[in-house]
Amino acid sequence: MATGQASTKPPDANEYGGDEISALVLDPGYSTTRAGFAGEDVPKAIVPSFHGLIPSESTPKHAKQLFGDNSINIPLPRISISNVMSKEGTVEDWDTAANLWEYAITSRLTNTKPTPLASNGLNDPNEDITMEGVEEQEKPLGENPLLMTETGWNAGKDREKGIEIAMENWGCPAFWLARNGVLAAFASGKPTALVVDLGASTIAITPVHDGLILKKAVTRSPLAGNFVSNQLRLLFASSQPPIPITPHYLVASKTAVDAGTPAQATYRTFAPGTEPHPSFRQFQEERVLTEFKESVVNVWTGPGRLGGHSQQGGTNIDVAKQHPGKPFEMPDGWNQMFPALDRYRAIEGIFDHKMALSDASNPPPSPGQTITALISSSLSQVDIDLRPHLLGNIVITGASSWFAGFTDRLQQELQAAYPGVRVRMVASGQMVERKFGSWIGGSILASLGTFHQLWISKKEYEEHGSGIVEKRCK
Amino acid sequence: MMGSDARDVLGLPSAGPPKPATPKVQKPKVRGPTGMSREVLDLKYEGAPPISIVAPKFKEKPKLPFKPRPWEETPFGNSARKDGLILRHWRRKGDVSNAATLPVTPADSNAASEMEQDEKATPTLSDSHWAKFNVKVDRPQYTDEQYETHLKNDDWSKEETDYLVDLAADFDLRWIVVADRYEYEPKEQPKDHEGSMAVTPQAKPRTQEDMKARYYDVAAKTMVLHNPLSSMSSSEFDAHEKMTKYDPNQERKRKMYAEQLMNRTDEEKYEEEMLLKELSRIVLNQEKLFNERKALYDRLGIPPGPPQTHSTAMYQSSQGLTQLMQNLLTQNKNKELEKKEKRRSAMAAEGDFSGGPSGMDRSQRHSIGGGLEKRFSFGQGGPRQLSAREEQKYGVSHPNERLTGGVQFRHERITKAGQAKSGVQTSRIGAALTELKIPQRLTMPTAKVVTEYEKLIESIKTLLEVRKLSEKLDGEIKVWQAQKEQQEAKDRGEEVKEEEPSQVVENEEEEDTKEVDEQAERRRTAEAEDDDEDEENAEEKEEEKEDSDEEASPKERNKDDEEDAEVDENFAGDQDDEEEEEEEEEEEEEEEEEEEGEDDEDEEMPIEAEAEVEVDNNDEDQDDANANEENENDRASSPASAAPTTRSEGLRKRSASVISHVSNKSSKRQRR
Ligand SMILES: Nc1ncnc2c1ncn2[C@@H]1O[C@H](COP(=O)(O)OP(=O)(O)OP(=O)(O)O)[C@@H](O)[C@H]1O
Ligand SMILES: [Mg+2]
Fold first, then answer.
1. Where do the TM regions start and end (chain A) (predicted)?
2. A146 phi and psi, to 5 degrees?
3. What pTM does this model have?
4. What is the pLDDT of residues B49-65, one digit of tens each?
5. Best residue among A154, A206, A223, A293 to mutate for probing ligand 1, ranked by most atoms within 8 Å of CB
6. Searching chain B, which residue's CA lies closest to the CA of residue A380?
7. Burial bucket for residue A221 (CB in 10 Å: 0-12, 13-18, 19+)
């Protein structure tokens, strides 16, 4: 009896400072968009930021949009894949992004139906027709305040789009826009930290002081998950014979083959005119490469860099050649033992620009783009008093930081660069926390009782317009 | 029951035990052969399977003694917000944990149009529990007028100042963030004259220090404007002080150094580490040294202050030490002298106790070696009083003469004693020692033995001198005798001239004997110099004596020639006596050596001290070689010779006794 009573009791608000108000947290990234209720520890809805487009025959201008893992991975006729995010990790296609986010929120979180396509305004040639009274009723998020994340370098008009969508399209009672770096620091329980976020599109270094981003010192470079994928593509192409990447959808059936021998599989063919767009294949290849990254790619953990000299006198490359390889099987059954050097090589470019593979479409990275250079340049723009604190609280987040040995290597590089300071990494050992660091931080923030007074209310939005975001969400 | 009750009422006796109200229905039991389990029996008799057929049923609902309270989504306001935003959270129905309530203002109803129904149900909204955490810094307030009169600054326009103050308040004075967000863009200046171009002043680059300096300046001044210094509370005053004392240049410099510190290379860091280690080592040793010194002072009987606070800093220089010594000596001079007198008489009774390292040496040694510190419990309020026996055992002496600085080695004393000014003399001493069968290097040089050894050497020196003299005189006598015979043979007639030279000889002889006496006296004084007489003094005496010998020698040589045979003979006789005495002494010494063998280990000295000592000695040797007078002066000025008069008095006394002793001897000799 007594226990039954205790379990139904809410946790004392004073204990953890939480006071949940059914707020939603939306964390869009280049590879996935995460959404969920504040106060939970994992986002309930994780949808790819990619969406499928099927051009309609009658009206070529209005392509059918497909969202979610269940629909965009099917090789529908003439399907093409595009991303709402730019290569910078910021939102590019706001209209589609609004649909994608609405899909993410309504499909898993709220039981409200997504706004019918007919009335969501996008397909309406004449916008004046919509009646306000009707709109009010149909808004999907009328009761949920929304916290959205943005990159550290998001600026100007892009910052205002979010509140416009939240207030106008979804009817949120309150809104907040937070930097994902700051939130990742919150997720690690650090109000002051140097957040190193390795996502798909960018490495972002965000210095956070007392829960506030130091905008001028934010640095970034494109040497992140996509870069590693491209390194793998170059590596496969340059190997003898070239290693083909065959995505799952192309394989109709396969039989097991020995390592290194050509695959024996039957491949799917598509009737002329119904083939998927090359972007679809690209997207599907990316999925294979992610699998490869998860299981095979490894970070050289020293001593020294992969391109450097070992303590015994030889090169580290020679040392690496002695390390064990790892097997990988492509979807069509082709498999091979990947030597250790290749496993190290694919990611070494993040640390050492000289080791990066390049070709015409993949220009070699500049020395300033490596992760160590980014951190150094970020630190140099921060007040000297803060630097030791930041170096002592380096928060590692983003799924691309999950490569084996990454944290050790970064620790080594930084300690070598700052011998006089104690460098400490804060990297969660839980993959979920690493992948969804910024969402989790948002979940914490939006469920705090003290956050109630910060929300931008609908009334404030109506009074001041979307410019209020710039004033409030600093 | 009823029956028994009726019987009770009627007073009838009860008829047997009352029957149970409901007789048990006895089920016929199927009994099989015993010794078989029920399951096995069931199998055998094909009875009903042993499965109880129970209809599946949910667990019964627990009957709660209270009604469950439902949860409901409750709207609430927040007094920290000005827009009356109403949010909802799940609360138990009727839970009034949030005591604070917000009156519903008309403004709220507008914003919360969707929640009208709820509002009707709850006319007052509960306030957020968190509203009270909304704390803001006070923004410095000033009017345009105040700005013009008090806050004007050439470098900062009013617009920029306003911007800065707002920004600082926005970020709650987190200056790092303020500096990060500082993006002041000066507005276009209004055109002054027609035709002139609009001037857009360049935004000045502002460092964090500039901003802080300006802000603190403004804040401090506005503080005074609103609240004069005199009426400020202490915390306000402190804040004001801090703000006015802010120095951006110093801050900049500090940051520069901090940056340099952070950008150290590995080698620099390593070097610094090494230096720090070295420093800590030095500091550690210093402490050790202080402690040793302190122990020494304790030993010397400095009035013990509180041990923690008693600073030894003033005694760290040699000057400080000398001063301390002087103070101590003058302070305790009379007392110590008294003591010494007493002790000397006591010692005289129980035998000569002397030599050994001086007290100073002793205590130093203890503090250095540390081995004996437990026995000499220092910490307990001054030094322990040692009994006479213990003092003897540990070789403690109480000299009232000046002490030489530092440590001396006994073997040095031995070698010094065995060495004369000239090599010939040294070898002669050696020869005499071998003659006496005493090894040049003592096997057991205890304090006593060494002192005795020194005495012996002194005696040998005297002996050698006297021998030399006697040899000379012998030769002389022979010459004279030969001359005499010649003359007697020649001038039998001339008798008048004969007498003159003998007279002269007699006179000279008298003088000579005096001289010899004086020398002997001095020697004896040196020997007889009290046991606690300091080494150095003894040496000085010795050298003094030797010097005087040398000075005197050229003249004396001539006079020596005219020595009398009588004296010679006497000395020859004396020689034997002395040898006998010496042999006796030696025997004594050997006995003593055996006794003191145990103590010797304790008396070994650390080698480090040697260098210092030697340097001292060398200096003194040189001084001595220069002039005795200087030495005398030195001694007069030096602190340890605090009692020159008393000593000279003692000397005089002793010399008198020696003179009488010598004269006795000579009379003895004469008698012989
Ligand atoms: N286990 C793993 N090991 C290595 N890389 C991984 C792993 N899992 C996912 N990735 C890669 O991480 C990237 C996605 O990371 P993340 O979800 O943090 O990015 P994002 O937030 O969507 O993108 P961005 O931050 O650039 O906007 C992809 O490139 C994916 O291939
Ligand atoms: Mg990300």
1. none
2. -125, 130
3. 0.60
4. 556 677 888 888 888 88
5. A293
6. B259
7. buried
